[in-house]
Prior knowledge:
Elements: E1 3-7, H1 19-23, E2 27-30, H2 36-46, E3 50-52, H3 66-71, E4 84-85, E5 90-93, E6 96-101, E7 104-105, E8 113-114, H4 116-132, E9 143-146, H5 166-175, E10 179-182, E11 196-197, E12 200-204, E13 208-212
Parallel strand pairs: 1-2, 2-3, 3-4, 6-9, 7-8, 9-10, 10-12
Antiparallel strand pairs: 1-13, 5-6, 11-12
Helix pairs in contact: 4-5
The structure holds zinc ion.
Residues 33, 55-57, 104, 147, 184 line the site of zinc ion.
Amino acid sequence: MTRILAVADEVDEGMYGERLPELAPELVLACGDLPLDYLEYIVSRLDVPLLYVPGNHDPDLRAPSRTWTALSPDLEDPGPPGCINADGRVVEAAGVRVAGLGGSIRYRPGPNQYTQSQMRRRALGLELKLRLKPARSGRRLDVLLTHSPPDAVDRPDTDPAHRGFKAFDRLLRVARPRAHVYGHVHPYGVAQPEPKVGATLLVNAVPYRLFEI
Ligand SMILES: [Zn+2]
C-alpha cells in the first residue's frame, strides 16, 4: 500500500501548520489550479515525490523544446522546482505508476484548455505510451491524474466550464487504473461519496484528500 496525498484547486491554510507532516504521505499528486509556490512548499517540506498536471488557470508549464534550450541556456523548466510535470506522460514514483492529463474543456482563450476531440487525441497518445512501456509489476496503470473529471461523474452544477472529458471515460475502461484523481469541480462542502467506475476509485482532491492504494 502507498499513502497518497492529493491536492487541487484551493490552498488549505492548515498545510502551513502541522497538518502536512502529520498526513505523512509517501507520494503527492497535484491536480492543478494551485499556486506554484504552494507545490514547491509541499515538496520541500515533505521530501517525497510530487507529480502534477496543470489546470485551466495555470500558465503554460511545458518545458521549452530542446532546440531552443540549446540556443538559450537560461530557459528553464517553468514548473515549480522539485516537482515533476506528469502532463501527457507516464511517470513511476514511490512504486506507483501515474499517467497525467492536465487542462479543462475549452471555454475561453488561453493555455491548458482542450475540446473533446483534442483531449481524445491526447488521451490516445497516453494510451499508446502505456502499451509501449509495460510496467515491471505487469500492471498497466495505478493512477490516472487529471485536472478535469471524467464525463461519467455527476456534476455539482451545470457550468459548461465544468464539463468532464469523454476521453477519460474511455481511459478508465481501457487502462483500468486503481484510482482516478482529479480536481476542477468544487465539492462545495457537500459530503462526497467515493464513487467507482468499474474497479476505479474516483477521488475528487479539492482541496486535499488522503488515500491508500
Ligand atoms: Zn480548473
